[in-house]
Design brief:
Blueprint lengths: L15 H27 L4 H15 L8 H13 L16 H5 L7 H8 L3 H15 L12 H14 L3 H8 L3 H18 L9 H13 L33
Helix pairs in contact: 1-2, 1-3, 6-7, 6-9, 7-8, 7-9, 8-9
Protein name: DDE Tnp4 domain-containing protein
Organism: Chara braunii (Braun's stonewort)
């Protein structure tokens, strides 16, 4: 008994089996760190090689058949949760689809996004696509799969609504620039074919009415106004160039 009248407890020592378990864990950590150090110097810190290094380190540390699974679990926990890892190096894969992928998600959360990009609701867009389809659909060949009609119409509307360049707009839709130019031309021709009574030049009495209405507003000899359209005008000699500047270029 000590001075306080308490019976001192015997100091507990680790058994041979427990010592083996601790040694296995330490060896696994050391083996793992050594292996990863070599991989880091070689510049090969890929996930598969990392997992292989962990498995090999654990296998090398626990070769005795008399040991239980506890060293494996303990070592894996130490390696996975305790040891700090360096920030991995990421290779970013370019996202394909872009704006078109966001527009193609049919849910209420993207309805506002859809209207913001194409200046119309999804229902109106679907009606337009249905009207254009007979004039836009391309034949399937052995060389390539044609672009979807929905994508072609959406690209043309997006290009007209935002005024983006073909390079930027085609990248947002995951298509090539030449395909984007062709898509706009196809949709333009489809509009004229599908809606001949909507997009037409006024004639006869209608021409006089429209011209008179524009004249009252201060635009004489004018019978229509179309926005977001490039019209080539040859600048006369000695004319100020600022009067012939295309703001959309």
């Amino acid at each position: 008994m000590d001075n306080g009248g308490r019976v001192p407890q015997a100091t507990r020592r680790l058994s041979t089996s427990e010592k083996s378990m601790v040694a296995s864990a330490v060896l696994a950590v050391c083996g793992y760190m050594e292996t990863m150090k070599g991989l880091w110097r070689a510049g090969g810190r890929r996930r598969g090689r990392r997992e292989a290094a962990i498995a090999q380190a654990l296998a090398n540390a626990c070769t005795s058949s008399g040991l239980s699974n506890a060293p494996f679990l303990l070592s894996n926990a130490i390696i996975g949760a305790v040891l700090s890892r360096d920030t991995p190096r990421w290779w970013m894969k370019r996202r394909t689809g872009g704006t078109w992928r966001d527009l193609d998600i049919a849910d209420d959360a993207t309805e506002e996004y859809f209207h913001d990009k194409l200046r119309m609701s999804r229902a109106i867009f679907n009606d337009i696509v249905a009207a254009y389809s007979p004039f836009i659909e391309h034949r399937l060949t052995h060389y390539r799969e044609p672009l979807q009609t929905y994508l072609i119409v959406a690209f043309a509307l997006y290009r007209w609504a935002t005024g983006e360049t073909f390079e930027s707009a085609s990248s947002s839709f995951g298509i090539g620039r030449s395909s984007g130019v062709t898509a706009v031309m196809d949709v333009t021709n489809a509009i004229l074919a599908a809606y001949p009574d909507k997009v037409t030049m006024p004639t006869g009495r209608r021409l006089l009415q429209v011209t008179r209405a524009f004249g009252v507003k201060g635009f004489p000899n004018c019978f229509g106004a179309i926005d977001c359209t490039h019209v080539y005008v040859d600048k006369p000699a000695n004319a100020p160039s600022e009067n012939y500047y295309d703001r959309k270029q």
